[in-house]
Design goal:
The protein has 193 residues and is of the alpha/beta class. It has helices at 10-14, 31-41, 81-84, 88-95, 106-114, 127-130, 141-149, 169-189; strands spanning 24-28, 46-53, 65-71, 75-80, 100-103, 124-126. The radius of gyration is 16 Å and the shape is globular.
Length: 193
Amino acid sequence: MIEYSHSITKEQLALLPVEEFKGRAIIVDTKKDATHAIEYLSKQSKVGFDTETRPSFKKGQRFKIALMQIASEEICFLFRLNKIGVPKILEEFLSDKSILKIGLSLRDDFGAIKKRTDIEPANFIDLQNYVGQFGIEDASLQKIYAILFGKRISKGQRLTNWEADVLSDSQKKYAALDAWACLKIYNLLNEGK
């Protein structure tokens, strides 16, 4: 098993070139779109996973998950949950034990999902727990990705409004990159297995 650098400093991270998602980011904002997306995703053996929630700047104010990103190597589907809720076909996909779903800090995501639907997510790997066996001590997606790929994931869009009527290209690229990066990390760590 390959051992990787244990950690990376903020200063080292700042010097790295910025990574970009070069695949297709597809908005899913109708139940019909969700059906097409899941038909494609169900043919994958593993996918990257992430969610986004509109940030709150008032004490006590909380929003539900607005966006769920599920990525293959080439395509990331951006499910606009604030517009379509969690369609049954998406619930079934999240509970499907045959497809591996890779994310980071999943406890937060699962807690947020529970506010929208009562499903039991199945066959998920949380990279925060997983990367330790490869000698990586950092737990943030940004740092894990930088250690493995020598590139930086920009967090510039994180605090934008994920419930906006139309997501900007920057928001779409940012959201897609996080889910896709989870898949890339897992694939690289498992190349030699």
